[in-house]
Amino acid sequence: MNKVKISVIIPVYNAEEYLDACLASIQDQSMPSFEAIMVDDGSTDSSSLICDRYSATDPRFKNIRKPNGGVSSARNAGLEIAQGEYVMFVDSDDVLLPDAMNTLYEASQGRADFVLGGFETYMENILRDKRSPHEGFFEGEALTAFYDRNVVHNGVYLNSPWAKLYSLRIVKEKNIKFHQGISYGEDMLFVHSFLLHADRIAVTAAPVYGYNLRIGSLSSDILSDRHISQLLVLLPEYSALIAAYRLKYPHCKTLAGLYHKDLIGRFVFRILRIFTVRRSEMLTSETLKTVYGYLDADEQLRLFNVRIGQFVNVLLYKIGWIWLSKLYYKTASGIFRLFR
Predict the structure, then answer these.
(1) Which of 164, 168, 209, 177 is nearest to 71 (CA)?
(2) Which of helix, strand or coil describes residue 233?
(3) Which parts of the chain fold into alpha helices (H)?
(4) How far is 336 from 194, CA to CA, in rounded Å?
C-alpha cells in the first residue's frame, strides 16, 4: 500500500442497521491510500460481524474491539493507532459522499493543517439541508477571515468532528483528544482545541459528508438534570478555549463575540430555560452562582441585547438576588408543569 494519506476513524456501537452503508461509502472512495479504523466499542448486535467482514476482505480496514466506554473513548482508541498524514472521523450511521477524501485532500494543497468541507443532512433518506462553508485557503493574517466567515449559525461547521481533515502530526504532538468525561459538546471541544494549533486552514464548499438525522437520536435528554450537569462540565472547558482564541486572534470580531453569542446565548441560557420550564434538583444557590459567574464575564451582555425570551433571566441576574431567582424558577416551572 502507498503511504497512508488519510486515517478514517469510525466508532461503532450497536449500529448494525446502518453500518454496512457507512463502511461501503468509505470503501468506494476513489482515493486508494487510506486506512479505515473501525473501533467496536463493545457492540452486542451484529456490528462486530460486519466489521470482521470488511477487515477480512479489504486490507485497508482495521478492526479494534474494546469494552464499551463511549464514543470519545472509541475515537481516542482510533487515534492511538492511526498512521495517516491526516485523520478524519465518520459516525457509523452516516456516510462519506462520493470522492469526499480526494476533495478534502486536494483542498489541503499538501500543506494545510486543517481542512473543512460542506455536508448534507438527511432524514429518512430525504435531503433536508445542505451547508457549504466559505471556500478558500487561509493562513497568516487571513486566518481571521476564516473565523469571520465560517463561525456562523451557532458554530454549525465546527460543532462536529466530521467533514474535516486534521493533521495527525498536530493531534499527536499536542496530545489532542476527545474529552471522555462528558457526552455533550465533546466534539466541539476537540475541533476548537485543534484549531488553536492550526496555522494553515483550507476550506472547500463541496459537500463531502452525509449526516443522517435519526428521529430517535434527537435530544430527548435536552431538558434533564443530567444535561445540566453535562453543560456545567462543558462551560469551563469552552470558556478557556474562547479565552485562548482571543489571545491568538485579538482583532477577530467573530471570536470576540463567541462568548456572548454561543457560550452565553446557547449554553448558559439553556440552563436557565430548563430551570424555567421544569422542576430541577440542580436548581440550587450554588448552581445559580456558577451560572451567574459566566454572565459576569460577558462583556457584551446588556438587558436589551438578548432575545425577548431571555429578558427575565437577564433581569434576575442584574438584580442579583439569588433567592429571588430561585423563587422565580420554582414558580415558573410549577406553572409549566400544570400545562404539560
Answers:
(1) 177
(2) helix
(3) 19-27, 47-57, 71-81, 100-107, 143-150, 168-173, 186-195, 225-248, 253-256, 258, 269-277, 285-296, 311-319, 322-338
(4) 41
Q: What CA–CA distance (Å, rounded) separates 338 from 331?
A: 11
Question: What are the respective helix, strand and coil percentages of the chain, to the nearest 5?
Answer: 45, 20, 35
Q: What is the pLDDT of residues 135-160, one digit of tens each?
A: 999 999 999 999 999 998 878 999 99
In this structure, the strands spanning 114-123 and 126-131 are antiparallel
Tell me the torsion sign for CA atoms 40, 42, 47, 52.
positive
Joined grid coordinates for residue 181: 468525561
Amino acid at 334: G
Please report which residue ranges of 70-205 form alpha helices under DSSP H.
71-81, 100-107, 143-150, 168-173, 186-195
Query: 3 CB contacts (<8 Å, ≥6 apart)?
Result: 33, 85
Please give the Cα distance from 86 to 4 (Å, whole number). 9
Alpha-carbon gap, residue 214 to 284, rounded angstroms: 35
Residue 200's beta-bridge partner residues? 139
Long-range Cβ pairs for the range 104-112 (8 Å, 24+):
104/6, 104/164, 104/165, 104/204, 104/208, 105/5, 105/6, 105/31, 105/165, 107/137, 107/202, 107/203, 107/204, 108/165, 108/202, 109/137, 109/202, 111/200, 112/137, 112/165, 112/167, 112/200, 112/201, 112/202
Instruction: Tell me the per-residue pLDDT of 254-281, one tens digit each, with 9 for 90 and over.
Output: 999 999 999 999 999 999 999 999 999 9
